[in-house]
Amino acid sequence: MTLVGHEEAWREWRRAMAGDRMHHAWMLVGPKGTGKGLFARAAAAELVAQEGVSQPSWDHHPDILIPEHPPEKGEEKKAEAGDPDVKRKRSIPVEEVRALQRRLTTRPTLASRRAVIFDPADDLERAASNALLKSLEEPPAGTFFLLVTHRPARLLPTIRSRCRVLRFPAISDADMERILALEAPEADAATRSAAIAAAGGSPGAALGFVDQDLAPLHRIMGRLVQEGDEHFALRGEFSALIGARPDRERQLATLDLARAVLTGMLRVASPAQQSRVIAAHAELSSLTALVPTHNFDAGLLAMEIGGLLASAAMPRETA
């Protein structure tokens, strides 16, 4: 994914690199999908580079270490073979951190600096966090830590206190448009617009939404919040567009887009309508939290989403 919209983060990082004492631990904070992980890798490549020494790419650099989620039981051979579809555990266990610490007892391979990236650091198990804390308290010479986090509150306060924070705000719509034009040139204007609306400033999410072809859903959602759906006709169209057997990714993309439509509606709604929009948004947020762990009937879920959008419309006699 193209790095766009991180100019301030780059300025702060490069000022620190040019200073006399580079801080040894950094926490890259911001919404998921804003490019923090890619920034960490590019920044690490700059950090470990040394003039006159040929540098491999970050993913093959011996001085850029990125502890991985270990493979699930039975997936070890696929991991050893480099299979990109290997299933991995959800957390980073303490064994991964301890293996890393053993490597940190040696000198960097190509130059005087080494970078360690945890992406995301949110996934560290408690014991792994405690082990990492020891390295942050007494960092090996020339070693720098970059902790990518979408939810910094999940990190130990003692870890947060030892890190310098680099913030990554949501990407502007204009920058999102630039990214989609570069990364998804096949998407038409309506598809890009729907993806940007649903993504909430996250280019990673927007690129995922482009694959979901949300533009037709976006148009129906606009009609639902404007016109309501007294006779269920729009909800029928809406359900057909989602599909009879949508996977969870499509369901969640639809819910994200629905909430974004209501957020946009709130900016222009009359005082009388605002309470309806807020109530519908709250119900959609609750539904979004349930979808990853519940097996909803696809048709009923579509009708529920459509009904909540329609509930935000003012009754015709009031409107």
Tell me the overall shape.
elongated
Q: Biggest β-sheet, characterized? A: 5 strands, parallel
- Terminal CA distance reads 44 Å
Report helical residue fraction. 40-55%
Mind explaining what this structure looks like?
The chain is of the alpha/beta class and 319 residues long. It has 2 domains: 7-167, Rossmann fold, CATH 3.40.50; 214-311. 52% of the residues lie in helices and 7% in strands. The protein is built from 14 helices and 5 strands. The chain has helices at residues 7-18, 36-48, 76-80, 94-103, 126-137, 157-160, 173-183, 189-199, 203-212, 215-227, 233-242, 248-268, 271-290, 298-311, and strands spanning 25-29, 64-65, 114-118, 143-149, 164-167. A 5-stranded parallel β-sheet has the order 2-3-4-1-5, with helices on one face. Strand 3 (114-118), helix 5 (126-137) and strand 4 (143-149) form a beta-alpha-beta unit. Helix 10 crosses helix 12 (248-268). The protein is elongated and about 70 Å long. The model has no long low-confidence stretch (mean pLDDT 90). Residues 51-88 are annotated as: Disordered. This is DNA polymerase III subunit delta. Residues 69-88 have a biased composition (Basic and acidic residues).
